[in-house]
Amino acid sequence: MAAALAASAAPPGVVAWAAPAASAKGPLEIKVGQTENLSHIEFHWAGGARFQARRDGQTLTLHFERLADPDMTLLRVDPPAFLQTADLRKGKGAIDVVLTLKPGADARTGEADGAIFVNLFPAAIPDAAPAAVAASVAPRPDPRPANGVVRMKGEIASGQILLHFPWRNPLGAAAFRRGDGVWLVFDTPIKLDLGATPPQTPIFKGIKAVYGPGYSAVRVSSPGGSAVRAWEDGSTWTLAIGQGMQPWPTAIKTERDAAAPLATLRAQVAGSTKAVWIDDRGGHRPVAGQGPGGPARLHRPQPSALGPRPGVRTFGGRFDGQSR
């Protein structure tokens, strides 16, 4: 935007920008924009700067690995909505901008268009409805076999790799590809016996079990970007790699959540059971799910927190395609 606009001059629903006078500009310039339910603070560094954000209650600290003495007037003299006060702390080769949020406010940080930004907005009020729904749903039967081991059955059919995981009762699972790795994650922790692994082929180079709090999983080494399918048949989950016959996948409609402060997808995923985090080659990757019957908010986490290209996966249903 070429010119700064006064907040009072902006029509409803339009962001009104304010910036320091040109003579006050240094390596760091702070701009503030507001709408009725959102305050948007941008930090523009000449030449860029690395940053980290940490939250402690209503205190949000932005740590910049570069020195500057920015004009804090817009944040101190006339703080935008949802901001109580702001402070600048200088260290060796770095500065901290400390933002104190007003009670009932929430914040998200990110990077876009060459600027580091903070969005301030009203904190969501917890919805009591999901708890009521969960209380009315009967506990599901234990999916774990009596001996505490799920024995995988592997086969090759017309060049397609088929890995079958028979459980005692149905359960949730998520399947996705990350580069040369194909994951199948179960929402229940248990020992996985991979003794019946099929021989290696050009699209199948091995499999290993991965365990974590609240889940068990397998990671298949599958170079070349071969097609991946996963489906549930009764209490057996099957992971298929390569072209072949398999059940038709269930379509899941996603749409933009207009009420969310950041770019957010909203999806109706019936039968999802939970959300867990797994670690893929040192970078945390999200596996997102939800309780049955309600919509899921699929927010793309910031790369600074999760490593490059985080993706979203859901527990339950059938999978067809590749995570993005």
Question: What's the short story on this structure?
Answer:
The chain is mainly beta and 324 residues long.
- Tell me the number of structural domains: 2
- The level of helicity is under 10%
What characteristic shape results from the CA principal axes? elongated
Chain-averaged pLDDT: 76
Oligomer: single chain
Radius of gyration: 24 Å
Estimate the strand proportion: 35-45%
Distance between the termini: 32 Å
Helices and strands: which structural class? Answer: mainly beta
Biggest sheet features: 5 strands, antiparallel
Q: How are the strands ordered across the major sheet?
A: 1-2-3-9-8
The poorly predicted ranges are 1-15, 282-324
* Total helical elements: 3
Order of helices and strands: EEEEEHEEEEHEEEEEEEEEEEEEEEHE
* Total DSSP E strands: 25
What does this structure look like?
This protein is mostly beta strands and 324 residues long. It has two domains: 7-122, Immunoglobulin-like (Sandwich); 142-319, no CATH class. 5% of the residues lie in helices and 44% in strands. The chain is built from three helices and 25 strands. It has helices at 73-76, 129-136, 303-306, and strands at residues 16-18, 28-35, 38-45, 51-56, 59-64, 83-91, 94-101, 105-112, 115-122, 149-151, 153-157, 160-166, 173-178, 181-186, 191-193, 207-212, 215-221, 228-233, 236-241, 254-256, 264-268, 276-280, 283-287, 295-299, 319-320. The strands form seven sheets. The chain has a five-stranded antiparallel β-sheet with strand order 1-2-3-9-8, with no helix packed on it. Strand 8 (105-112) and strand 9 form a beta hairpin. The longest helix is centred in the middle third of the chain and has 8 residues, at 129-136. The two termini are 32 Å apart. Mean pLDDT is 76; it is low at 1-15 and 282-324.
